[in-house]
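<derive_structure_tokens>
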Amino acid sequence: MGQPAAGQYLTRFAIIVTLVVKDFVMQTMNISLPDPMKEYVEEQVTAGDYSSASEYMRELVRADQKRSAREQLERTLLESLLEGEAQEATPEFWSTLRAELSKRTKTGRGARQIVPAA
């Protein structure tokens, strides 16, 4: 890796996390940031919005995961709109859909096409 451009210095900053969530231990990750970005992260922590740089970075990752999930949902919904015949959303449709989703949640099955009875 070459030398940074004049005035561009990278700061290596370690995010150390020890959090156990359902037998999942989070690991340490080193991130290189330009000084202005490091200062910004530190400002967010100093302002009291976050308790640590690690918490700030985790929040950024969670926000990105939510954004990705929304984009995937939008793609899936658009694909669904473009294929198959339209189906009227009657009270019976919603009742059948809720029952199927409840059953899938209890059995832990993955996503599959739901076709409520007419």
